[in-house]
Amino acid sequence: MASEKVVTLTDANFKSAVLEADKPVLVDFWAAWCGPCKMIAPVIDELANEYDGQAIIGKLNVDENRQIASEYGIMSIPTLLVIKNGQVVDKAVGFKSKADLAKLMDSHI
């Protein structure tokens, strides 16, 4: 079950939800057919709960939101970007452990 703290990102809300955010944002680029995306989903939910108030955790379905995925050159999924002050400050591609993603987030909070 997805955490209610995970923000659903779209081409339409990306600017306001991510680029104009006052906190670091972890964006999970994913698709429903992607096995590793399904494996990382519970980790994303846990991070959303643990970083509530410190960071924004969001998911963007690349099949439904091709514009943003294209703008950021997403070629493999899952791709996770950390965006702070409107700029990409970190990136991880493929399945990552919760510890790896926590370390990634901690370096930008």
UniProtKB/TrEMBL annotation:
Q: Where is the active site?
A: 34 (nucleophile), 37 (nucleophile)
Q: Which PROSITE patterns match?
A: THIOREDOXIN_1, THIOREDOXIN_2
Entry GO CC:
cytosol
- TM region(s), chain numbering: none
Provide one Gene Ontology biological process annotation: cell redox homeostasis
The record's listing under CDD domains reads: TRX_family
- Site (Contributes to redox potential value) at 35-36
Q: Which UniProt keywords apply?
A: Disulfide bond, Electron transport, Redox-active center, Transport
The Gene Ontology terms for molecular function here are:
protein-disulfide reductase activity
Entry-linked PANTHER family:
GEO12009P1 (PTHR45663:SF11)
Question: What's the protein here called?
Answer: Thioredoxin
**Taxonomic source organism:** Heliorestis acidaminivorans
